[in-house]
Amino acid sequence: MVIDWNDLTTMLVSVLCGGLLGVEREYHNKSAGLRTIVLICLGSTVFTMVSQRIGGSDDRVAANIITGIGFIGAGVIFKENLNVKGLTTAAVIWISAAIGMVVGIGEYNMAYLLTVIILIVLSGFEQLEFQIDSINHKSNYYITFKDDKLFNIDLILEMAKAEKLKASVMHFSKADGKLTANIEVRGNKKHFSRLTDKFLAKPEILGLEH
């Protein structure tokens, strides 16, 4: 296999596109940062180039790249309490492999365009996502009562309703005579701080996690 200037250009374009996406992930301190995204993009490019040289089935190589990237993407997804973290980073890993394959077949302009679009989605849409979350924010309160007899679900729901928030009880747990309730609250984010203060002011509440 002879490496010419076209091969070098292809690999450099792949590193450039992957690097731009990796810098964005690195800036936000994500688990898959600059080096990871660059290597994924470059690896997909090289596999695509090799498949064209050896005369194999491009469809088969592409399917195997997608399968392999799926394993890597799954490794950055984890569950924290009731929330799932890492989905966006996994999606960036997935799309960076697609860009690498596009570069591998020599479609540089498409690769540049895809990279720009992804950067716009990651950065420009973040503010829009923040605004939507502010209007319809969801949070879980873990409230521990000094005595299980002091628990009053109607009072908790009324306190949330008074702040124009919707609350629902997810589950209970009891240990050493103390009751812990998981309360899911939804609504405008600016009202959450007042609700938290009201919970903390209640003498029957021993602890609060939010």
Structure, described:
- The model has no long low-confidence stretch (mean pLDDT 83).
- The protein has helices spanning 5-27, 34-53, 58-74, 87-104, 108-135, 153-162, 192-201; strands spanning 78-80, 83-85, 137-145, 166-175, 178-187, 205-209.
- It contains seven helices and six strands.
- 26% of the residues are buried.
- The protein folds into two domains: 5-133, no CATH class; 136-209, ACT domain (Alpha-Beta Plaits), CATH 3.30.70.260.
- Helix 4 (87-104) packs antiparallel against helix 5 (108-135).
- The strands form two sheets. The protein has a four-stranded antiparallel sheet. The protein has a two-stranded antiparallel ribbon with strand order 1-2.
- With 210 residues, the protein is of the alpha+beta class.
- It is elongated and about 80 Å long.
- A hairpin with a 2-residue loop joins strand 1 (78-80) and strand 2.
